[in-house]
Amino acid sequence: MNFLNTRTSWGRTILGATAALMVAVTAGCGAATSTSDSNAGNKDVAVGGQSFTTADAETAKFGSDAEAGQFPRTVAHANGTTEIPAKPQRVVVLDTGELDAVLSLGITPVGIPSTEGANSVPSYLADEVKDAKTVGTIQELNLEAIAALNPDLIIGSQLRADKLYSQLNQIAPTVFSIRPGFPWKENFLLAGESLGEETKAVSVLNDYQTKATALNEDVEGDPKISLLRFMPEKIRLYANKSLIGVILADAGFSRPENQNIDDLAAEISAENLADADADWLFYTSYGTPEATGEKAAVEGPLWGQLQAVKDEHAIRVNDDVWFLGLGPTGANQILDDLRGYLVK
């Protein structure tokens, strides 16, 4: 895919406000002086929701009619339209995908959320945001902490904070994508439009696709690649509607039949680890291996029976990059990882 003409294909019709069930607000920033609850998102765009599978196509319609780099501009996004008077200098991001996106555009945010993974900030980005202030967790944002940073732009998503949009927009101009994850390229272009860095965003994605295509050309044969992630109380095989699923598709790699589905993931039990087998198996944990069941599985009797394990093609990868990156910097690191393992 070439992204050079992406802006011309974006929706030029400014979308009406679509956010539903917003939290009631009062005048002034006084409404934003608390920590949100963990139900602030939008279930319709979550896995299994009626708007999940179309999130990439719908996000591609968003953007701005402004000339590249010019402000003021109006940005159409998942929750309507937002006026951005000048190029943002103090940006707050509400998830790891937005964090990767703005850093990939050369902008260091002043406020970031923490995650519940093994690292509070994705390890591959941590050095770049040492001075950023924490604004709560991805699941529970601290609106008072966001307001205290005096941001001039907030970037988030309906999935995480739909019901908080009105309050956030009182603090600063706020732009929402539909959801993080598999629409990561569309989300990145939307961030570029919001920051006046649309030209750079298109260039970054073109370079990424060139790299993905070159990787496929250098891999011998057509290996099937399986993605296994251990999580507290669940084990997932990641499918096409995920960050890594999109990357594998962009690079032209095959997937096992049980993962070649238009969904985020398929869940399996510890007794069905054989379902994770393939020519190559990449696995990790969201949290510590002891807490997610990874340690028990890898040390158990079923693990050694997998053909990928026997062939030494079962590779533990960095969860922060492969599943929490959700942006072009993480995507490019995944391509580097794949090249290191697959290209002889």
UniProtKB/TrEMBL annotation:
InterPro entries: ABC_transptr_periplasmic_BD, Bact_iron-sidero_bind. It is found in: Cell envelope. Keywords: Signal, Transport. CDD domains: FhuD. The keyword Acetylation does not apply. Residues 90-344 form the Fe/B12 periplasmic-binding domain. Residues 1-27 form the signal peptide. Belongs to the bacterial solute-binding protein 8 family. This is Iron complex transport system substrate-binding protein. It comes from Glutamicibacter protophormiae. The lineage of its organism: Bacteria, Bacillati, Actinomycetota, Actinomycetes, Micrococcales.
